[in-house]
Amino acid sequence: MQASRKAVGVWLLAIAVIILAMVTIGGLTRITGSGLSITEWDPIMGAIPPLNDAQWADAFAKYQKIPQYILENRGMSLEAFKGIFWWEWTHRFLGRFLGVAFFVPFLWFAWKGAIRKSDWPRMLLLFVLGGLQGFIGWWMVQSGLETRVSVSQYRLAIHLGAALLLLIAILWIALEYLRDLKSAYKPAGRTIGFVALIYVQMLLGALVAGLHAGLIYNTWPDMNGRVFPEDPFFSKPWWINFFENPGLAQFDHRIGAYIVAGFAAWIFAGGMRFGGYVKKSAKLVAAITAFQIGLGIFTLLLQAPEELAALHQVTAAALLCAAVWHAYEMRHRVS
Question: Is 20 left (phi over 0), alpha (psi -120 to 50) or beta?
Fold first, then answer.
């Protein structure tokens, strides 16, 4: 039975890896402007891409009707369209594959008794939330099909936020099955707070991405010679600027990075008082944070090239995973 429980943990870790891949591909889809290339949502038949010239011509004709093509990509060739189409199709295919990769093994493990019956409801809830994520993704795409040339930054943040919640939950349950530790403390407030902080920081990053705010103020530590962006509260009401002013969105993301760095140092210092996986996870948190801060600065200075922007996002997700692991180990720490 112990081996079966560990198999469940490995399976859930594999699911977490697929989610990480989706976050990465999703980031590249956004960066390459590919997210609106498929203008319809068909959960079943949409899994089959165009297979002949007529089907490609039909898909391209539908894309040519939306504002992104008319205002930004007019004159795009069919071959160029195929390039952005495959990014979006791959992202959607991974979502479908994730559903199968979760549900089928769940039925097997449940039948074999490797998953406790008490865990069935939360496993099924995760499956439902995964399906809901598909609806959120389409809701996001819809925001860019009628009047905008890109998706709403709000819906982009919600889409990413839902994916990250799934990642956190699945990773935590995977650790429960892999580690199966009995002695539990109350979660250390700073470790749970650190997970929440990274989550919020990633949502701020989604706003930056949705507003293309990484393409302005490409200096550091100042913002083109300023501490604060120019005219940060030009829109009314004033609070809407935190979500719609690109300069202020970038400023918020910068400040969030400094806070994450400070928290990571606190996590590292606290983790060094223990041994085993607590210490190892604290070291991992500190190492990824240091790399992510440097990567973020480098990405900003170079005006967010596609490869670095995508690496910045996946590194943020890796830091979130490391923070969840550390929180779990602190809950089951040996004093």
Answer: alpha
Q: How many folded domains does the chain comprise?
A: 2
**Is 0.70 surpassed by the pTM of this model?**
yes
Domain around 54: 1-180
pLDDT, tens digit, 9 for 90 and up, residues 38-90? 999 888 878 899 999 999 999 999 999 999 999 999 999 999 999 999 999 99
Residues listed for the chain = 335
pLDDT in tens, 175-229: 988 887 665 566 568 899 999 999 999 999 999 988 988 889 999 999 999 998 9
Which of 130, 150, 180 is at the close of a domain? Answer: 180
The rounded distance, in Å, linking the Cα atoms of 271 and 326 is: 9
How far is Cα 258 from Cα 89, in angstroms, rounded to an integer?
Answer: 36
pLDDT (0 to 100) of residue 31: 84
Same domain, 8 and 148: yes
CA distances in angstroms from 95 to 102, 141, 267, listed in the order given: 11, 15, 34
